[in-house]
Design brief:
The complex is a heterodimer. Chain A is α/β, with parallel strands linked by helices. In chain A, 38% of the residues lie in helices and 22% in strands. Chain B is elongated and about 105 Å long. In chain B, α1 links the parallel β2 and β3 (45-50). Chain B has 2 domains: 3-94, Transcription Regulator spoIIAA, CATH 3.30.750; 124-364, no CATH class. The chains are: A alpha/beta, B alpha/beta. The A-B interface holds A 24-26, 57, 60-62, 86, 89-90, 92, 94, 96-98, 100-103, 113-114, 117, 158, 161 and B 102, 105, 144, 228-229, 232-234, 236-237, 239-243. The complex binds adenosine-5'-triphosphate (ATP) and magnesium ion. Magnesium ion is lined by residues 52-53, 97 of chain A. Chain B: It comes from Parendozoicomonas callyspongiae.
Chain lengths: 261, 366
């Protein structure tokens, strides 16, 4: 893939308009309005079960919203036809909470799959695969099967697969859960690096306050009780200045009692 | 030490319940209902107080929480301030987050069974439609299927099943021959055993046995494989890469079955006839007679009809297996269910399809 020069920012990369999410009749979150700009590291915060993973699934088009719209670079995903959806999706990289590696393929084949699907050349695939695996610290594990490596390694391999195509937007569900502190730190560095070098926009669901403060530049706080967003903004700023006490205490917890939310 | 309790009604407006003895797991504890009376008489608060020789563990807290629920039902309060600090802390912790009041989704429809049957039927039709579209894409050359996967599935659906298929086909052939021999010898018509074996295997038993074996072996394996992929979010990962799961996962299996089943059925016919031959020559017929009669007893049309049945059964195995696998939601328990459903559904499909095909062949005079 050839890198384009950074585009002039006309539209936010992602924008939701009055997004309402349901499972059947059950309301999960309503009336979400937020924008994610080019180069943002956008974090989705909130207590357990408030609908963070659900929001992510909506953003990547796995679930469709009950009401409202999701707009990518000014183009509505909801009203787009299958072909333009496909094109939008090819610019995304997604890592799942569990890694979601294909268990009957080696790590190399896993990472190669999106490349092959995008029509990359056989000879370059091998080199790219090696490079991406090295980026996540898994160089030399090409021929291992997912069942032969640890959970944290699966997660990193999932990341390697997600960044195989140099995505414009990276979606993460709980990237650092299950990683040791050092790997978690490395992951944060990697994310920052991807943002700085190729301008990737990153959307993260995370519970790790430390990494939230270290990398996030913007975010949204979902609440399970009112079933809507309580506040938006940079977590570092929200921690001191949020108008909602719940948000402040959620974020302050990290300093007083360790991140145990 | 025994568990005991005592209710002090000396102040009718504020009854005090003394919990004495060991309130621990494993003892016969009184039920919460014992404080019902206290709740009914009090004005607004029931006092729970530790009595003599008081001992406690989680069981006590379980009791207190239950008592509290009972109090709430009667719009009364429960006071436990006389208990040790640690009990109160645990109690506060348990009460910190109000319990969820909504219940897991369950339809309260009296026609649940019919409705789920209806929904299932619609979903199956939808799945068939998607499969047809995917086949169309395949022939248009725009499918995401990988040749490697097809070979892999072919291997699963073919060579690996040969052993058990051979065994069962030979046995079925022998059984047919044995039954026929016993009955037909009463009329001195032993020679027609060959007809019975040939037609029985080719028109009915061969493809049906093959299908049942393949449904239990390969169909079930595929259902659990796809189910596990679904649960493990692998299918979601595929979708987000822009790869259609229908093409990538279902098509290789469909093609593999469509190729393997007619061949396996034909193989089963032959082995069944061999089995029949072994049985009859072991009884009172020569091999020559058997072969002579056998070759006269069926036409190429019969073989084609039998193989066509096998082909249809193969499609049904894939339909049942892949659909229940792809519809798997949630947990590892769902994978087990999907596997069961794949086999049961496939067998129901076989019976229906077999009847329909026989009727069709009859009307067409094949
Ligand atoms: N497939 C589903 N069908 C029905 N309800 C669901 C489904 N998935 C999740 N839910 C419900 O939606 C709510 C939000 O779930 P979600 O997984 O989005 O939470 P979360 O914020 O990601 O939580 P966590 O931080 O624990 O991962 C939960 O209450 C859950 O019960
Ligand atoms: Mg989640």
């Amino acid at each position: 893939m050839v890198m384009d020069a950074p585009k002039t920012i006309e539209f936010p990369v992602i924008e939701t308009r009055a997004l309402t999410m349901r499972y059947g009749d059950r309301l999960i979150q309503k009336n979400l309005n937020f924008k994610v700009n080019q180069g943002d590291i956008f974090v989705i915060m909130g207590g357990s079960g408030c609908g963070k993973s659900t929001l992510l699934k909506h953003l990547i088009g796995l679930n469709s919203p009950a009401e409202g719209d999701i707009v990518y670079n000014g183009e509505s995903y909801i009203s787009a036809d299958e072909q333009s959806r496909q094109q939008m999706r090819q610019r995304w990289g997604i890592t799942f909470q569990s890694g979601a590696l294909f268990s009957d393929m080696t790590l190399a084949e896993n990472v190669a799959l999106p490349l092959r699907h995008a029509g990359a050349h056989r000879s370059e695939i091998r080199d790219i695969v090696h490079y991406k695996l090295s980026l996540v610290g898994l160089g030399g594990y090409e021929d291992y099967f997912p069942s032969q490596i640890s959970g944290g390694m699966c997660k990193r391999a999932g990341l390697a697969r997600a960044i195989a195509l140099d995505p414009e937007i990276l979606f993460f569900d709980e990237p650092s859960a299950g990683l040791d502190p050092l790997s978690a730190r490395r992951l944060d560095d990697l994310i920052l690096h991807l943002r700085d070098s190729i301008g990737t926009t990153v959307v993260i669901v995370t519970h790790e306050l430390a990494s939230m403060f270290a990398i996030a530049s913007n975010g949204i706080f979902l609440d399970a009780v009112t079933k809507t967003a309580l506040d938006h903004g940079d977590p570092n700023w929200l921690k001191e200045h949020s108008r909602e006490a719940i948000v402040r205490s959620f974020l302050a917890r990290g300093e007083t009692e360790g991140s145990q939310l | 030490m025994d568990t005991d309790f005592l209710i002090d009604f000396s102040d009718l407006n504020a009854p005090v319940v003394y919990l004495a003895g060991a309130w621990v797991t494993g003892k016969q504890l009184p039920e919460v209902r014992i404080i019902q009376e206290a709740i009914c008489t009090c004005i607004n608060t029931v006092f729970l107080v530790p009595g003599d020789n008081f001992e406690w563990d989680s069981r006590l807290l379980a009791f207190i929480l239950a008592a509290e629920r009972l109090c709430q039902e009667h719009q009364k309060k429960l006071d436990i301030s006389a208990f040790p600090e640690s009990v109160q802390q645990l109690y506060d912790l348990a009460k910190a987050v109000p319990p969820n009041i909504s219940s897991p989704e369950e339809s309260h429809n009296h026609w649940t069974f019919l409705k789920s049957f209806w929904v299932g039927a619609i979903e199956t039709l939808g799945f068939i439609g998607e499969m047809c579209i995917a086949v169309g894409r395949l022939f248009a050359g725009r499918s995401h299927m990988r040749a490697v996967d097809l070979l892999f599935c072919l291997n699963q659906a073919g060579p690996k099943a040969l052993g058990i298929l051979s065994l069962l086909s030979v046995l079925v052939g022998m059984i047919l021959a044995y039954l026929g021999m016993i009955q037909l010898s009463q009329f001195g018509a032993e020679v027609y055993v060959a007809n019975l074996v040939a037609l029985g295997m080719v028109r009915e038993m061969g493809s049906l046995m093959t299908a049942v074996i393949m449904a239990g072996r390969t169909g079930a394996a595929w259902a659990s494989e796809l189910g596990a992929m679904q649960v493990n979010e692998e299918v979601d990962a595929l979708k987000t890469m822009g790869i259609r799961p229908m093409d990538f996962l279902v098509m290789p299996r469909l093609l593999a079955m469509a190729i393997a089943m007619p061949l396996l059925s034909a193989y089963s016919f032959i082995l069944g006839m061999i089995g029949g031959g072994v049985m009859t020559t072991g009884m009172e017929m020569t091999l020559r007679m058997y072969l002579h009669q056998l070759l006269q007893s069926f036409s190429p049309g019969d073989v084609l009809a039998g193989c066509f049945k096998g082909f249809i059964f193969g499609l049904l195995i894939v339909l049942a297996g892949c659909q229940s696998g792809m519809n798997c939601r949630g947990s590892s328990a769902a994978v087990g269910e999907a596997t069961t459903r794949a086999v049961v559904q496939a067998i129901v499909y076989f019976v229906i399809a077999d009847a329909a095909l026989n009727l069709m062949f009859y009307k067409l005079g094949i």
